């Protein structure tokens, strides 16, 4: 058992709900996180549930107990501050939709970590897009320039922590190519 309470029946019954409330959710979250950790092996796991949590306290608790259960970090900045959990995040959907095209990019160059010639990330992204469109059976007019501009902007701003959201795409349709794209982008990890 997780805990054992002994005492007069009336006192123990009065404590039961409070103690179960303090333990059940924490145990549920930590156990679930531990199962994910076992399944994921050495892959990084981050908790991003604050917007869907059962209130602000539930969000803090979920972040804390997911970390205790084995997750590597959270998107919850307050939980990171309060519980010393590494904070990791993505971009907001509003950030993506705020871009209309490539003309809004203030910087298109990705600087190498150890010095050297910067890479034109816009040119590189357009080359990859051209190569991938036939694989996805898409036409260039179907690709959003604003969306690609936003992703380029974010990748340049956060080169070591870039993580693109895929929940706005037809994930099943494109999943066949995800490994190819992922393996090709790993070759650019020497850039900051």
From TrEMBL:
One GO BP annotation of this record: NAD+ biosynthetic process via the salvage pathway
Taxonomy, superkingdom: Eukaryota
UniProt xrefs under InterPro entries: Aldolase_TIM, Nic_PRibTrfase-Fam, Nicotinate_pribotase-like_C
Catalytic activity: 5-phospho-alpha-D-ribose 1-diphosphate + nicotinate + ATP + H2O = nicotinate beta-D-ribonucleotide + ADP + phosphate + diphosphate
Ranges in a coiled coil: none
TM annotation in the entry: none
Pathway the protein acts in: Cofactor biosynthesis; NAD(+) biosynthesis; nicotinate D-ribonucleotide from nicotinate: step 1/1
Record EC number: 6.3.4.21
Keywords assigned: Glycosyltransferase, Ligase, Phosphoprotein, Pyridine nucleotide biosynthesis, Transferase
Name recorded for this polypeptide: nicotinate phosphoribosyltransferase
GO terms for MF: glycosyltransferase activity; nicotinate phosphoribosyltransferase activity
Any single GO CC term annotated in Swiss-Prot or TrEMBL for this entry: cytosol
UniProt keyword Magnesium, yes or no: no
